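batch job 7 of whatever, protein = DUF971 domain-containing protein
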Amino acid sequence: MTATPWPTEIRLTKDRRTLVVTFEDGESHELAAEYLRVESPSAEVQGHSPAERKTVPGKRDVTIVAVEPVGNYAVRLTFDDLHSSGIFGWGYLQKLGRERETIWGEYLAALEAKGLSRDARR
């Protein structure tokens, strides 16, 4: 069993497009707002089973408007599209950082397969 990662810094960049998370072992990840929004751990995105998982399009320009602590185990992110139901635990943030290339690639492939775009509809 691995120990729960512990963040020493959670910082939102000035442009509100990147969340920087640094862990006590020095591991650090810059996580784009778009990536965090489309991989939100909320039931709205993840569903209640893998079959219910949603592919969220149109979030290329999303920003983070608030980062709020949830106890001592997570943060709740509020995005400018008003999505705020995902609670990002430390382990999930670490996973998103460590596995970004794979997770992001799977997301882009799902968008393409469904004929969806990263850009918002105009």
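notes: The chain is about 25% helix and 25% strand.
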